[in-house]
Amino acid sequence: MRVTQRMMVDRMVQYTNQTMERLAKLQSLGAAERKFVNFSDNPSAAAASLSLRSTLNSSASYLETARLTDEWMTASEVALEKLESIASRYLVKVRGAATDTLGEDERSTVAAELESARQDAITTANSRHQDSYIFAGFKIKTQPFVIDPDDPTGLTVLYQGDDRTIQRSIAPNQLIDVNVDGLYDAAGNKVYTKDIFLNFFNNLQQAADALRSDDTAAIAAAADALEESLTQLSELRGINGARLSHVNNTIGYIEDTQLALQKSLANNENINLAEVITQMRQQEIVYQAILEVSSRTMATANLFQYLG
């Protein structure tokens, strides 16, 4: 086949354009520091990146929910620890007052402390996390424990929340109870947190009344009631603590998973800049060589045309 000057020029233009396109693509990848800029650059890698990013976004949502749950449960732990401490401290005092070692004046002093502790316990039961009451069930914007305005003694406490359980999804197919809504007794019956708290408030007041009346038998009975409250409060704290530990473990797992996903995404997308620079230099050398050969070829063709 006769090779014409036109064919040589077309072929040189084709080689030049191809080299320039490869060089431009390498320059684009180098500037973006990515293995692909458009989906068409590397469809399989781009599809893998889409999948990895989707999983990362999903895990980020679960992580945020788990952290919010952790904060709520931590606030519950602080409140339950304080209530447990009040019950433990005053159980010891009431047990001591049940003996004959304390006189009437000393028992009255302990009674005054109990009444003060009762107010402290009510305030703690109304604890909030980010303006939400943590022991009000779903009624998180309603103060759960209030003094009955119709009680002239000012001693009756009413509950304004509900018994509903707040649940959150902290991982795929994994729901967890956020609030501590109660426990189950030995008979398998549900004892709600509101009732445990209300009984605790009443037991503190009954202990104070027994001390003021200087009734040793009543004081002993009040101590038994306080011990039951302490047991229930400790159990509530244990339930919340177990859930909190699970949430913390889940947070750690999600964070580790995200690190692995981010590493895979980086390996899939990020380029080796030194390697790209080397390839660019190679393409530049090829480009210069094509220009040199093209120049010589055109000169030769022109010479033949002149001689012919």
Return the domain count: 2
The main pleated sheet reads as: 2 strands, antiparallel
* CATH superfamily caption of the largest domain: f41 fragment of flagellin, N-terminal domain
The DSSP helix count reads 6
Q: What percent strand? A: 5-15%
Series of H and E elements: HHHEEEEEEEEHHH
How many strands appear in the DSSP assignment? 8
CATH class of the largest domain: Mainly Alpha
CATH topology of the largest domain: f41 fragment of flagellin, N-terminal domain
Per CATH, which architecture of the largest domain? Up-down Bundle
Terminal CA distance reads 20 Å
Strand order of the largest sheet: 1-2
Shape: rod-shaped
Quaternary structure state of the chains depicted: single chain
Computed Rg? 39 Å
Task: Give your account of this protein's structure.
- This protein has 308 residues and is mainly alpha-helical.
- The mean pLDDT is 83.
- It folds into two domains: 5-52 and 272-307; 53-264, f41 fragment of flagellin, N-terminal domain.
- The protein is built from six helices and eight strands; from the N terminus they run αααββββββββααα.
- The protein is rod-shaped and about 120 Å long.
- It has a two-stranded antiparallel ribbon with strand order 1-2. A two-stranded antiparallel sheet has the order 3-4. A two-stranded antiparallel ribbon has the order 5-6.
- α2 runs parallel beside α4 (193-212) and α3 runs antiparallel to α4.
